[in-house]
Design brief:
5-amino-6-(5-phosphoribosylamino)uracil reductase activity; single chain; two-stranded antiparallel sheet; globular; RibDG_C; Dihydrofolate reductase; DHFR-like_dom_sf; alpha/beta; Dihydrofolate Reductase, subunit A; eight-stranded mixed β-sheet
Amino acid sequence: MGTVVMYGSVSADGFIADENDQPGPLFDWLTSGDVPLDESGVLMVSQTSYEYIRPYWDQIGVTVVGRHVFDLTDGWEGTPPSGIDHVVVVTHRPQPDGWDPNAPFHFVDGVEAAMAMAHELAGDRTVEVAAGDVGGQVLAAGLVDEVRMDVAPVVFGSGKRYFGSVNAQQLLEDPEVLQGNRVLHLRYRVQRAR
């Protein structure tokens, strides 16, 4: 079974979007360098960020997101982002009307069922869980192995929290830290009960 990673870009004060669901400058680091991150030619990062992000992206088999993210991105028009094989959408609603049933998106009710499906689809590859409410629920359920944050140098003051509505303490191991252009990459292992 692959590692479960909660991941997202985040403001210095812990938000993944402002009150209007806008990321503002959170993703500026993805266009602030001179090394192509993918074939699109749009994502250009520093060499440090490339060496950190590219191997991670190459390990991802499945991304788990909430219905809110799915709706905001218009389901990536049926094509999972960043070359990922499958997206599992945690939702209480059915797939949208007219949705292509052959698109590699799976609509599942509840985080436990979503994670079971994600593990099945990913095999030994990484299961990525988007930060926010769903990521916080997966963390609270004890199903996250690692937390990765790309911290952007901006303060929002309020907005959508990285850990969603988690209200219980969760200890993390000491971070691995890398600095790129306009970003600080943090990687924490989740501390397990002893």
